[in-house]
Design brief:
- The chain is mostly helical.
- It contains nine helices and no strands.
Length: 200
Protein backbone atom coordinates (compact mmCIF):
# COMPACT_ATOMS: atom_id res chain seq x y z
CA UNK A 1 0.00 0.00 0.00
CA UNK A 2 1.33 3.43 -0.82
CA UNK A 3 2.32 6.03 1.74
CA UNK A 4 -0.48 8.28 0.57
CA UNK A 5 -3.13 5.66 1.12
CA UNK A 6 -2.11 5.14 4.74
CA UNK A 7 -3.15 8.71 5.42
CA UNK A 8 -6.76 7.70 4.73
CA UNK A 9 -7.34 4.22 6.24
CA UNK A 10 -9.63 1.98 4.23
CA UNK A 11 -9.81 4.40 1.32
CA UNK A 12 -9.02 1.82 -1.34
CA UNK A 13 -11.54 -0.69 -0.01
CA UNK A 14 -14.26 1.91 0.44
CA UNK A 15 -13.70 3.32 -3.01
CA UNK A 16 -13.60 -0.10 -4.63
CA UNK A 17 -16.87 -1.11 -2.99
CA UNK A 18 -18.47 2.20 -3.83
CA UNK A 19 -17.40 2.05 -7.45
CA UNK A 20 -18.48 -1.56 -7.68
CA UNK A 21 -22.01 -0.47 -6.85
CA UNK A 22 -21.86 1.80 -9.87
CA UNK A 23 -21.84 -1.31 -12.01
CA UNK A 24 -25.62 -1.01 -12.05
CA UNK A 25 -27.14 1.64 -14.26
CA UNK A 26 -29.12 4.14 -12.17
CA UNK A 27 -27.84 2.55 -8.94
CA UNK A 28 -25.47 5.29 -7.78
CA UNK A 29 -27.98 6.66 -5.29
CA UNK A 30 -29.06 3.28 -3.96
CA UNK A 31 -27.52 2.15 -0.69
CA UNK A 32 -28.37 -1.51 -0.08
CA UNK A 33 -29.22 -2.54 3.44
CA UNK A 34 -26.84 -4.91 5.19
CA UNK A 35 -28.31 -8.30 4.48
CA UNK A 36 -28.80 -10.77 7.28
CA UNK A 37 -27.79 -14.40 7.15
CA UNK A 38 -29.69 -16.76 4.87
CA UNK A 39 -29.63 -20.47 4.18
CA UNK A 40 -27.18 -21.87 1.61
CA UNK A 41 -28.27 -21.93 -2.04
CA UNK A 42 -28.85 -25.65 -1.84
CA UNK A 43 -31.69 -25.00 0.61
CA UNK A 44 -33.63 -21.93 -0.60
CA UNK A 45 -36.64 -22.68 1.62
CA UNK A 46 -37.64 -20.54 4.61
CA UNK A 47 -34.90 -20.08 7.21
CA UNK A 48 -35.01 -22.12 10.39
CA UNK A 49 -36.57 -20.46 13.44
CA UNK A 50 -34.16 -18.33 15.42
CA UNK A 51 -31.92 -17.44 12.46
CA UNK A 52 -31.37 -13.77 11.54
CA UNK A 53 -32.46 -14.35 7.94
CA UNK A 54 -35.83 -12.80 8.71
CA UNK A 55 -34.16 -9.39 8.81
CA UNK A 56 -33.51 -7.20 5.78
CA UNK A 57 -34.19 -8.09 2.13
CA UNK A 58 -34.40 -11.84 2.76
CA UNK A 59 -37.62 -11.30 4.71
CA UNK A 60 -39.52 -10.04 1.67
CA UNK A 61 -41.26 -12.33 -0.79
CA UNK A 62 -40.31 -12.10 -4.45
CA UNK A 63 -41.46 -14.05 -7.46
CA UNK A 64 -39.01 -16.64 -8.84
CA UNK A 65 -38.68 -14.52 -12.01
CA UNK A 66 -37.83 -11.40 -9.96
CA UNK A 67 -35.17 -13.26 -7.97
CA UNK A 68 -33.76 -14.91 -11.10
CA UNK A 69 -33.36 -11.51 -12.76
CA UNK A 70 -31.82 -10.03 -9.62
CA UNK A 71 -29.34 -12.89 -9.49
CA UNK A 72 -28.49 -12.51 -13.18
CA UNK A 73 -27.93 -8.77 -12.85
CA UNK A 74 -25.82 -9.17 -9.73
CA UNK A 75 -23.63 -11.85 -11.35
CA UNK A 76 -23.47 -10.07 -14.70
CA UNK A 77 -22.43 -6.80 -13.08
CA UNK A 78 -19.18 -8.32 -11.85
CA UNK A 79 -19.84 -7.51 -8.21
CA UNK A 80 -19.79 -11.20 -7.26
CA UNK A 81 -16.09 -11.27 -8.13
CA UNK A 82 -15.45 -9.70 -4.73
CA UNK A 83 -16.89 -12.82 -3.06
CA UNK A 84 -14.34 -15.05 -4.80
CA UNK A 85 -11.40 -13.57 -2.90
CA UNK A 86 -12.93 -13.84 0.59
CA UNK A 87 -12.74 -17.58 1.20
CA UNK A 88 -9.18 -18.04 -0.12
CA UNK A 89 -8.19 -15.16 2.16
CA UNK A 90 -9.64 -17.06 5.11
CA UNK A 91 -7.65 -20.15 4.13
CA UNK A 92 -4.46 -18.10 3.85
CA UNK A 93 -5.10 -16.60 7.27
CA UNK A 94 -5.50 -20.07 8.79
CA UNK A 95 -2.24 -21.18 7.15
CA UNK A 96 -0.43 -18.15 8.56
CA UNK A 97 -1.73 -18.88 12.04
CA UNK A 98 -0.33 -22.40 11.78
CA UNK A 99 3.05 -21.31 10.39
CA UNK A 100 4.75 -22.02 13.75
CA UNK A 101 3.70 -25.67 13.45
CA UNK A 102 5.02 -26.88 10.09
CA UNK A 103 4.10 -30.47 10.95
CA UNK A 104 0.45 -29.47 10.45
CA UNK A 105 0.99 -28.14 6.94
CA UNK A 106 0.14 -31.30 4.96
CA UNK A 107 -2.96 -32.19 6.98
CA UNK A 108 -4.12 -28.58 7.02
CA UNK A 109 -3.88 -28.30 3.24
CA UNK A 110 -5.83 -31.54 2.86
CA UNK A 111 -8.53 -30.35 5.27
CA UNK A 112 -8.85 -27.00 3.49
CA UNK A 113 -9.09 -28.79 0.13
CA UNK A 114 -11.78 -31.13 1.47
CA UNK A 115 -13.80 -28.14 2.66
CA UNK A 116 -13.94 -26.54 -0.80
CA UNK A 117 -17.47 -27.84 -1.60
CA UNK A 118 -18.75 -26.44 1.69
CA UNK A 119 -17.00 -23.13 1.04
CA UNK A 120 -18.61 -22.98 -2.40
CA UNK A 121 -22.00 -23.38 -0.70
CA UNK A 122 -21.11 -20.48 1.56
CA UNK A 123 -20.28 -18.35 -1.47
CA UNK A 124 -23.60 -19.30 -3.07
CA UNK A 125 -25.27 -18.27 0.18
CA UNK A 126 -23.79 -14.79 -0.17
CA UNK A 127 -24.83 -14.68 -3.82
CA UNK A 128 -28.41 -15.47 -2.77
CA UNK A 129 -28.30 -12.73 -0.14
CA UNK A 130 -26.95 -10.27 -2.72
CA UNK A 131 -29.63 -11.27 -5.23
CA UNK A 132 -32.35 -10.61 -2.66
CA UNK A 133 -30.76 -7.25 -1.88
CA UNK A 134 -30.91 -6.37 -5.58
CA UNK A 135 -34.52 -7.53 -5.75
CA UNK A 136 -35.32 -5.25 -2.82
CA UNK A 137 -33.93 -2.23 -4.68
CA UNK A 138 -35.17 -2.82 -8.22
CA UNK A 139 -38.49 -3.85 -9.67
CA UNK A 140 -38.69 -6.80 -12.02
CA UNK A 141 -39.16 -4.41 -14.95
CA UNK A 142 -36.07 -2.41 -13.99
CA UNK A 143 -34.03 -5.58 -13.61
CA UNK A 144 -35.08 -6.70 -17.09
CA UNK A 145 -33.77 -3.42 -18.52
CA UNK A 146 -30.52 -3.68 -16.56
CA UNK A 147 -30.06 -7.32 -17.56
CA UNK A 148 -30.54 -6.34 -21.20
CA UNK A 149 -27.70 -3.84 -20.85
CA UNK A 150 -25.36 -6.41 -19.33
CA UNK A 151 -26.19 -8.89 -22.10
CA UNK A 152 -25.26 -6.31 -24.73
CA UNK A 153 -21.72 -5.96 -26.16
CA UNK A 154 -21.36 -2.62 -24.37
CA UNK A 155 -22.49 -4.13 -21.08
CA UNK A 156 -20.10 -7.07 -21.40
CA UNK A 157 -17.25 -4.71 -22.26
CA UNK A 158 -18.11 -2.56 -19.24
CA UNK A 159 -17.89 -5.57 -16.90
CA UNK A 160 -14.62 -6.76 -18.49
CA UNK A 161 -13.08 -3.31 -18.04
CA UNK A 162 -14.37 -2.89 -14.49
CA UNK A 163 -11.35 -4.32 -12.60
CA UNK A 164 -8.95 -2.05 -14.46
CA UNK A 165 -11.30 0.91 -14.01
CA UNK A 166 -11.45 0.29 -10.27
CA UNK A 167 -7.67 -0.03 -10.00
CA UNK A 168 -7.14 3.21 -11.87
CA UNK A 169 -9.84 5.04 -9.94
CA UNK A 170 -8.37 3.91 -6.61
CA UNK A 171 -4.98 5.31 -7.66
CA UNK A 172 -6.55 8.53 -8.91
CA UNK A 173 -8.50 8.82 -5.67
CA UNK A 174 -5.33 8.43 -3.62
CA UNK A 175 -3.59 11.17 -5.60
CA UNK A 176 -6.63 13.43 -5.45
CA UNK A 177 -7.05 12.93 -1.70
CA UNK A 178 -3.42 13.84 -1.06
CA UNK A 179 -3.60 16.92 -3.29
CA UNK A 180 -6.87 18.14 -1.79
CA UNK A 181 -5.74 17.58 1.79
CA UNK A 182 -2.61 19.66 1.15
CA UNK A 183 -4.61 22.35 -0.66
CA UNK A 184 -7.20 22.63 2.13
CA UNK A 185 -4.50 22.83 4.80
CA UNK A 186 -2.69 25.63 2.94
CA UNK A 187 -5.93 27.56 2.50
CA UNK A 188 -6.99 27.09 6.14
CA UNK A 189 -3.57 28.28 7.36
CA UNK A 190 -3.76 31.32 5.10
CA UNK A 191 -7.25 32.27 6.22
CA UNK A 192 -6.46 31.67 9.89
CA UNK A 193 -3.31 33.76 9.45
CA UNK A 194 -5.47 36.68 8.31
CA UNK A 195 -7.27 36.39 11.65
CA UNK A 196 -4.06 36.41 13.61
CA UNK A 197 -3.82 32.65 14.22
CA UNK A 198 -0.81 30.58 13.25
CA UNK A 199 -1.41 26.89 12.62
CA UNK A 200 1.39 24.34 12.57
Amino acid sequence: MSRRLTAVPGLALSLALGLALLALPHAAAAQPQKAGSAKPAAQPSAPAPGTPAANGPAAATYTPAHLALAREVMLSSGIARSFDSVLPAFADQIRKQAVTRPELSKDLDEVLASLQPEMELQKQRMIDIAARTYASKFSETELKEIATFFRSPAGKHYVEAQPQLLDEMVQEMQDWTQDVSEYVMVRVRAEMGKRGHQLQ
